[in-house]
């Protein structure tokens, strides 16, 4: 009676938890290693898979592509020079930033399949980021300041400074910045001004940081916000119109006085029919003023 009860309880636990004897596990689920150093990715599996179990290691990079590291228990050609196997574990030498990603240990045997995943983060300190700051912008326009470091691993987070003062990522939560209209994205390094104002003029620089090394910054750059010079535009248009009027008057006067050579077309009032005289053309129209056009 007691034995039956124990067996029943065991079966209940097995059914409710889904525990199976076919287990694949890792004691290194999250590996962080400095670039150019080595590390071990560990994998173990239960004997239920059998003595002839098939073992494979696969690499899934951060872009989503997949390659074999170990196929049927043997390192592939592209990894053979820096990967060795001991038991079911993977030993990698001279890790590079291209090795960032997920590594899956896959075991199959006796009609069953199991896998364990190891995340590898290669630690690379940031480099001085590339910053783009426009030197002159117009009030009320959209302005983007960008900051990017392609080398840091894990990907760095970004901070922006104006005149040496740190800009909070959420200005609405910081007194003194509640009237600010900028938008700052610490993940991609963009600092946006949907409608830039004169008060946004200043000296800007960006800083990139991760947990692999010290923060790095770009050189400060000045951004000046100017009002749209409407008066200057109006004056420019008026001057252009005056210039065209003076030019038209001069041409008319030269035509009238006969100072224009025969390489010109003369349009004189009289008739619609053109009359060709030498290398001069007269267009006669009683409704048209005299016009002189250079060929």
TrEMBL record:
Q: Which domain of life, per UniProt? A: Eukaryota
Q: What is its main location?
A: other
The UniProt entry lists membrane topology as: Single-pass type I membrane protein
Annotated signal peptide: 1-21
Q: Where is the Ig-like domain?
A: 22-121, 128-222
Family membership, please give it.
Belongs to the immunoglobulin superfamily.
Spell out the protein name for this chain.
Junctional adhesion molecule A
The organism's taxonomic lineage, starting at the top: Eukaryota, Metazoa, Chordata, Craniata, Vertebrata
């Amino acid at each position: 009676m007691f034995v039956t009860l124990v067996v029943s309880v065991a079966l209940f636990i097995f059914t409710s938890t889904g525990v199976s004897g076919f287990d694949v596990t890792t004691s290194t689920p999250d590996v962080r290693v400095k670039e150019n150093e080595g590390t071990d990715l560990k994998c173990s599996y239960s004997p239920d898979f059998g003595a002839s179990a098939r073992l494979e290691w696969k690499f899934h990079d951060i872009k989503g592509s997949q390659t074999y590291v170990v196929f049927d228990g043997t390192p592939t050609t592209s990894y053979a020079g820096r990967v060795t196997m001991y038991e079911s574990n993977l030993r990698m030498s001279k890790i590079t930033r291209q090795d960032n990603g997920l590594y899956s240990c896959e075991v199959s045997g006796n009609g069953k399949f199991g896998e364990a995943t190891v995340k590898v983060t290669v630690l690379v300190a940031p480099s001085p980021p590339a910053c783009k700051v426009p030197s002159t912008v117009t009030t009320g326009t959209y302005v983007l300041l960008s900051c990017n470091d392609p080398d840091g691993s894990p990907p760095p987070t970004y901070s922006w400074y104006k005149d040496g003062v740190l800009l909070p990522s959420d200005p609405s939560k910081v007194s003194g910045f509640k009237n600010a209209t900028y938008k700052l994205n610490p993940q991609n390094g963009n600092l946006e001004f949907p409608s830039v104002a004169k008060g946004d003029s200043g000296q800007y620089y960006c800083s990139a940081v991760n947990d692999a090394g010290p923060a790095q910054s770009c050189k400060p750059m000045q951004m000046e916000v100017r009002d749209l010079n409407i008066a200057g535009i109006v004056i420019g248009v008026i001057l252009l119109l005056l210039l065209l009027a003076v030019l038209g008057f001069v041409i008319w006067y030269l035509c009238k006085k006969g100072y224009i050579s025969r390489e010109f077309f003369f349009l004189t009032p009289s008739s619609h029919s053109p009359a060709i005289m030498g290398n001069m053309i007269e267009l006669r129209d009683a409704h048209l003023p005299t016009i002189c056009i250079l060929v």
